[in-house]
Amino acid sequence: MEAATGSAVVGAVAAISGVVLGQCIGAIKDWVTVRTNREKDAAYLAILVGGHLERFVDGCWAVSFDDGTAEGRPAGEQGFHQITVQAPTFEPMTFDVDWKSLPSKLMFEILHLPYKADGLAVEIDRHFEYGDWPEYYDEFAVRQYKYLSLAIYAADLVRRLRRAADLPLEIDATAGRERASRMAERLAFLNERQSERETRMQQRQAKQEAGA
Fold it and tell me: In this predicted structure, what is the pLDDT of residue 29?
């Protein structure tokens, strides 16, 4: 009788263990499937969005060389310097991707980039509204510096995006290093111009105060 009872208990335990084990295996399979799909979603997002971000970087880089001239002459009429390279746009919400597959901070920074660019455009417009025409020398210098800084910021987003998806950080490593080097050199040049501009403004203010 005791042997029969023991056998029944063992059988029940085995049956329960089998059910639990089956559920665990099913849960593991589901987790692996979800993880695999999330990794695929993240990789697709990184490839698609990364490409658009690269285009945005190139656009900002081009703006950093715009001084309002064309072929060495003022681009506008009557000797006015005029913007010749329009600021690029980036519209992440038009992409059919799963943004939730990204780390929260990175997702926020990428989705916030259009607002960052819009704010910069408003700031630049304000500079030109009260600028020193017809050359707008200082205004173009500020625009060049600000958009180069935005290009560097967006390029960093591209690298972080690809790192999050376990993709190569640069499609062409050599070209990537060369671009980073050129951006650093350009930034150093514009920083130097910024320092010179601030010095001129201080000297001008000092003269005005001395003559007052």
Answer: 40
